[in-house]
Specification:
This protein is α+β, with helices and mostly antiparallel strands. The chain has a domain of about 120 residues: Sandwich (Jelly Rolls), CATH 2.60.120. It is built from 14 helices and 9 strands. A 5-stranded antiparallel sheet has the order 1-2-9-4-7, with no helix packed on it. A 4-stranded antiparallel sheet has the order 3-8-5-6, with no helix packed on it. β1 and β2 form a beta hairpin. α2 packs antiparallel against α3 and α12 runs antiparallel to α13. The protein starts with a helix and ends in a 10-residue tail after the last strand.
């Protein structure tokens, strides 16, 4: 009798375990089917998924995007299923807001913050109060959002700019923790808004607290934008700040990199060698070598650099030699006013089979401290395009003895 009872118990256990396994397999299959229907992402499939798995808040939330008539009820259900889900509370808040129920909208946004103190609920509250034109609450939540900034805080800068396009006010509100990453993003934002003078101020701050690897490229962009805006003093000050901190290597004289020994860095205060079909330039220990194939443009810039000079009289000295470039072919140095693009001085054509030392005297007029030093080619009338090479060994600009020395770069 005992043996028979034991066999019966074992059989019953086997049947129970088998039944439970079948139930588990069935549930797994059902869950998998519900997930597949959810991924089909249409209203009918979502309703079927909810029928199979009625406790999934995500299904109700997604269905609300399709069923606009019942979206509020669907989101309410999602909140009841998981009241600690900030994303659902935010979506419900948006629904209440769209329906004009601002009291419940505010409560939903605040509920999202209550369960999730990260950046998104903070940003949503700031954006909500901006839309409601509640400026004290907006600036308060903008500051709270800035206390936990994301990798990309630009949207917060944008809504602050909508509220008040005042760079100082935004900085006082958002730059709560002045980390290098946050200041970096603000400088980039100011550049996009064309606020170059303010960007320069924060660029100096970033130079003090940042690193060359992370921030040099942005600060060089600030220098270039200041040059383009003809803000010579600010551009020169930031450039010197980078030199002092060894973020860039630059000469004390004018122009920078006067012997072309270093590979230029991408900034207006160093050489730029525009590329064209038929014209190739490369710096090196011997100077700047340029090859003209005869198919280059008839009017082009071979090399250029911005220099800053105080008003007064100057002399530029340069050393070069060339091969197969005839006299008066159109290769010459030019000094150009950066603000007006007017030509201040033009050198004689560069054409000499032997090493030649030449000079160019010029006067910088008042209010023209930013200048372009350019080596230009402009095909002279009655000549064919150059097919040869030039080698510029060095160039230097100095103030004439009766004047003060130029501002150094």
């Amino acid at each position: 009798m005992t043996s028979t009872l034991r066999r019966s118990v074992r059989n019953a256990l086997r049947i129970t375990v088998a039944g439970l396994c079948c139930v588990g397999i069935w549930n797994s299959l059902q869950f998998a089917r519900a997930d597949r229907l959810f991924r089909e992402d249409d209203e009918q499939s979502l309703r079927k998924a909810i029928h199979i798995e009625p406790d999934s808040w995500l299904y109700y939330m997604r269905l609300a995007d399709f069923d606009h008539v019942h979206s509020r009820e669907l989101l309410d259900t999602a909140v009841r299923l998981d009241r600690y889900n900030a994303l659902v509370n935010v979506e419900l808040g948006r629904q209440y807001e769209a329906d004009g129920d601002y009291s419940r909208a505010e409560k939903s946004y605040l509920a999202a913050y209550d369960v999730d103190r990260t950046y998104p609920p903070r940003w949503n509250l700031a954006a909500y109060y901006l839309r409601r034109n509640n400026m004290p609450a907006f600036w308060s939540w903008a500051r709270i959002a800035a206390q936990m900034p994301p990798d990309d805080i630009d949207p917060l800068f944008e809504i602050c700019w909508q509220a008040a396009p005042d760079p100082e006010k935004i900085a006082n509100t958002v730059l709560v923790h002045e980390t290098p990453a946050l200041v970096h993003q603000y400088v980039a934002f100011l550049l996009r808004k064309g606020q170059f003078a303010v960007a320069a101020t924060f660029a100096h701050q970033l130079a003090r607290m940042g690193t060359s690897d992370n921030d040099r490229s942005l600060l060089l962009s600030v220098v270039d934008r200041l040059v383009a805006a003809n803000q010579a003093t600010a551009a020169n000050a930031l450039w010197h700040s980078l030199i002092v901190r060894n973020w860039v290597i630059a000469d004390e004289g004018v122009p920078n990199n006067s012997h072309f020994l270093r590979e230029p860095i991408p900034v207006s205060f160093d050489w730029s060698f525009p590329e064209y079909d038929g014209l190739h330039s490369w710096p090196g220990p011997s100077g700047l070598e340029t090859e003209f194939t005869g198919s280059e443009p008839e009017d082009c810039t071979v090399a250029e650099q911005v220099v800053t000079l105080a008003p007064g009289d100057y002399t530029m000295t340069y050393t070069y030699h060339s091969a197969d470039i005839p006299p008066d072919a159109g290769l010459h140095w030019r000094i150009v006013d950066a603000s007006s693009n007017s030509i201040i001085a033009t050198s004689p054509d560069l054409s000499s089979d032997s090493e030649t030392h030449s000079t160019l005297s010029f006067t910088v007029p008042p209010a023209s401290s930013l200048l372009w030093l350019r080596l230009d080619y402009q095909r002279a009338l009655g000549t064919t395009r150059i097919a040869g090479t030039s080698m510029v060994i060095s160039t230097q600009i100095k103030a004439n003895p009766k004047h003060d020395m130029p501002t150094m770069q």
